[in-house]
Amino acid sequence: MAQASNKGKKVLAIILGLIWGIIVAVLVADLYMMFNYKPTYYSSATRIADRITSKAYGQLYATMQSDLIDNLDTDKQTEYAEVLAVHDYIEAAAQYKMYKDNGITDMANRYKERMDDAKNCLGGFDFTAGDIDKILGIK
Amino acid sequence: MKCQSCGANLQIDNAFCPYCGAANPVAKKHREDMKRYANDYKKTKEEVVGNTRKFNKRTFRITAIAVTIAAIAGVILFSAVAESAGRQMYRDHRRQNAEKYFEEVISLIEDCDYIKLDTLARAKGVKSTNDKSMREYYSAENLATEYSYVFSDIMRNLTDESLSQSELTTVGSEVYRFYKYYNAGPETENETVVRFFENCKRDMGLLLTTYVGISEDDAGNLENMSEGQIQVLIEEAYNGTSK
């Protein structure tokens, strides 16, 4: 009887110990997440690579733009540097064409400069510039 | 008590009278009673101690289980709010540093650089500081945000091979919202902001004529159109350009 009672006590102690272990682990994980919060960014290298492969540059731009608004730190994450250049190229090229076609030369020149700056940063994605020009109708 | 034989004073536990030597009948019963009481007391004491020990053990177990259940509930609750608390802390931190970007935001307003302005102002939480010195620029920031939404959607649609009805409706709604902000006016006499408003409206027209395909006349009249009219116009223009 006493042995059975002792066994019950041991089982209870083990269960409670495990539960408390899990509680502490979850608490530590939550605290870590809380103090290291970062918004969810969607322009991961893999996803962006898919967009480039499928030439979905518009979607790439929109995704990246949304992440930038969520304060994506592109300086620290080098994997974003070339993707950011594609984003910047689309943005500049679209506005360049818009101003150029409507005879607003000073603005067109400003965005042409930005296009060139972005083009220089395209690195391995330099082929995208031609694709984007074609999509936007830039000769 | 008194001796039943000689009447002398006796202690209750005296077996015999010290004066006449007569036997004390009460003394024996008294001793037996005392012995029984002592036994009863011992038994009761053991029982009470045993019960108390059992009660303490049970109380400890129940308390441990109750505290564990409360801790589980607490952790579940904390997990539910941890992310939003983290988000809030992140935003607060961003807001505390936003002041560093005020000058840059004003410079982008002067340059009519709508998208860069929207990106910087929102990413760094400039508006959420509610700083007095920046209030006259809020309307420009809002208009830039609307421009940026439309621009972003138009860019997305450029490489979207099958535009859905809802995507077209969304562009229409965003264009309408842009003109709603435009029609509300700059809410300031600040010349930079007034000029920003006029240029932004002109450029929204250019954006829509260049990439959506609406006519210049329609673009010039968008500020007077209802949301439904703009949606129909955008839809027709997209369908026209896709033909």
Structural class of the helices, strands and pairings of chain B? mainly alpha
**Poorly predicted sequence stretches spanning 5 or more consecutive residues of chain B:** none
User: How many helices of chain B in DSSP terms?
Assistant: 8
Whole-number tally of structural domains of chain A:
2
The radius of gyration computed from the alpha-carbon positions of chain A, rounded to a whole number of angstroms, is 27 Å
What's the mean pLDDT score of chain B? 92
Oligomer: heterodimer
Based on CA inertia axes, which overall geometry of chain A fits? rod-shaped
Helix content of chain A: over 70%
Fraction of residues of chain B in helices?
over 70%
Biggest protein-protein interface?
A-B, 43 and 40 residues
Tell me the number of strands of chain A.
Answer: 0
Order of helices and strands of chain B: HHHHHHHH
Explain what the structure shows.
The complex is a heterodimer of chains A (139) and B (243). Chain A folds into 2 domains: 1-37; 45-136, no CATH class. The longest helix of chain A has 34 residues, at 2-35. The model of chain A has no long low-confidence stretch (mean pLDDT 87). With 139 residues, chain A is an all-alpha fold. Chain A is built from 6 helices and no strands. Chain B has a domain at 96-242. Chain B is 72% helix and 0% strand. Classes of the chains: A mainly alpha (139), B mainly alpha (243). Chains A and B meet through helix 1, helix 3 and helix 4 of A and helix 1, helix 3, helix 4 and helix 6 of B.
